[in-house]
């Protein structure tokens, strides 16, 4: 119903904000990420989702389209309601959440409020194929292959050496190209393209 609401930020609370637009104050449930990125008294544009239930109508909104999209994905998972989805988004930014899901990091996801091990596993199972692989931010500890197969950087170096490149050249290429690579074969191809420049 509402694509976004643009107006003056009148109130900031723990888990919601109030935005005044054309004399109406909209109570918008939101994440800590959004709350930390806006200031009271300023004009804000909040991308929104109206959630209608039998006994309640609530607006959920976020500073970026990416955060709204991640909220909708989280909310689509069975047994994860709007409040839990909001708690997960307050726990980590969308790019980090995407990385946790892609790398099947159940341990990290379990630390989000309202999420236990089984819920974290369900998140991975239901969302792994829906996450945009080009819009995630991996931490160094998460640079592993999807499906929990480690990215074998040493194998890539050995393969490049076998193709006639020096050890130093091979290591440099692997270090430059390993970011966002999930498979050893993919890494080798990127390294070859890098070395042929």
From TrEMBL:
**Organism encoding this protein:** Tepidibacter formicigenes DSM 15518
**Highest taxon above the source species:** Bacteria
Known partners and oligomeric status: Homotetramer. Forms an RuvA(8)-RuvB(12)-Holliday junction (HJ) complex. HJ DNA is sandwiched between 2 RuvA tetramers; dsDNA enters through RuvA and exits via RuvB. An RuvB hexamer assembles on each DNA strand where it exits the tetramer. Each RuvB hexamer is contacted by two RuvA subunits (via domain III) on 2 adjacent RuvB subunits; this complex drives branch migration. In the full resolvosome a probable DNA-RuvA(4)-RuvB(12)-RuvC(2) complex forms which resolves the HJ.
Q: What is this protein called?
A: Holliday junction branch migration complex subunit RuvA
UniProt-listed SUPFAM superfamilies = DNA helicase RuvA subunit, C-terminal domain, Nucleic acid-binding proteins, RuvA domain 2-like
InterPro entries in the record, alphabetically? Answer: DNA_helicase_Holl-junc_RuvA_I, Hlx-hairpin-Hlx_DNA-bd_motif, NA-bd_OB-fold, RuvA, RuvA_2-like, RuvA_C, RuvA_C_sf
List the Gene Ontology MF annotations in alphabetical order: ATP binding; four-way junction DNA binding; four-way junction helicase activity
Q: Which gene encodes it?
A: ruvA
Q: Which GO terms describe its cellular component?
A: cytoplasm; Holliday junction helicase complex; Holliday junction resolvase complex
């Amino acid at each position: 119903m509402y694509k976004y609401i643009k107006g003056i930020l009148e109130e900031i609370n723990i888990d919601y904000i109030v935005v005044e637009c054309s004399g109406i104050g909209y109570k918008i449930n939101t994440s800590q990420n959004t709350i930390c990125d806006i200031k009271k008294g300023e004009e804000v544009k909040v991308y929104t989702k109206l959630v209608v239930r039998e006994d309640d109508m609530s607006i959920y909104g976020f500073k970026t389209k990416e955060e709204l999209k991640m909220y909708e994905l989280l909310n689509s998972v069975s047994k994860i309601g709007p409040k839990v989805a909001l708690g997960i988004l307050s726990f980590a930014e969308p790019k980090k959440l995407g990385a946790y899901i892609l790398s099947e990091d159940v341990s990290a996801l379990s630390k989000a409020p309202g999420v236990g091990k089984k819920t974290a596993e369900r998140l991975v199972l239901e969302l792994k194929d829906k996450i945009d692989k080009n819009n995630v931010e991996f931490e160094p500890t998460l640079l592993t292959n999807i499906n929990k197969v480690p990215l074998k950087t040493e194998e890539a170096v050995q393969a490049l050496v076998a193709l006639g490149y020096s050890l130093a050249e091979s290591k440099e290429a692997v270090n430059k190209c390993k970011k966002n690579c999930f498979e050893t074969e993919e890494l080798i191809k990127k390294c070859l393209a890098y070395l042929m420049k």
